Amino acid sequence: MKKIKFLFPVLMLIFFSCKNEEKKSEHTPQTENVEQLKVISSFSILTDIIKEIGKEKVDVHNLVPTGTDPHEYAPVPEDIKFASKADVFVYNGLNLEGGNQGWFFKLLQTVRADKNNLIKVSENVKPLYLSDKKGEKEINPHSFISPVVGLEMVNSIAKGLITADENNADFYKKNSEKYIEKLKNIEKKYREEFSKIPEEDRVFVASEQAFQYLTEEYNLKEGFIWAVDTEENGSPNQIKNTISFVKENNPPVLFVESNVDTRPMKTVSQETGIPVYAPAIFSDELGKPGKEADTYLKYLAYNLKHISKGLTRNAK
Ligand SMILES: [Zn+2]
User: Fold this and answer.
1) Domain final position from 185, 218, 249
2) How far is the CA of 262 from the centre of ligand 1 (A)?
3) Considering the entire predicted model, what is its pTM?
């Protein structure tokens, strides 16, 4: 994504100059029910989990739309309007939304959000660090790709909703327990499927270094072209390093993600003879509504299916 931070003040002006105008709302359809808890969610994966736990008790407004990078985002007037009356603000943390100086915290400042109403879903997640920073440590924000982290996220969201809306505590608790059961089943399958892949084939290569929480959890060796989407993507030097990694580690396939330019990986493929696996897997976003991987549980199942198939040589 281009640097669009500068647009933020401009958008604010547009918002304040036309705030009386009714805009079509993108969030969950709501009746005139004033009882619903108003929840702001930074991106699609969190929005889906909040809906699963809060169901009809919550009115969720999703910020970063599918197809847009969550690392950098400029809230639109509709977002600011909803945020100004939101009860709870849910975000990933680990710098996914640009950290304390990023777009999400700017939005909180704009609407003077109460810090007590924040839910940081990575609260209990141990951060991992991007590896290509010389000397300085940069947190890898993509923890949600691992279902083990998913379990922590659900706990944090349930706890946050219960604190914000104690009257419905039992409702949130019951829904989160059901959801956690499904998530644990998927996690078990991750462990089983990856353990079947022979040691020498447990080499996972994708464009962005987004899968670190997954590869460390399930003992896969991770290769990538660039560390994080916001920086240089697919420079000749990055491609050269990936080619060396691929030649050295001989992965069964190369993966591309749904939200990246696939040309750099195609170059790596041409230079090494290792095929690019199709279809694309998912990292920073869910699939489009009604399409594959359009919920977090389906996203996890989809990635497992394709990653394990790709890493199994001669799989049909
Ligand atoms: Zn990313």
Assistant:
1) 185
2) 15
3) 0.87
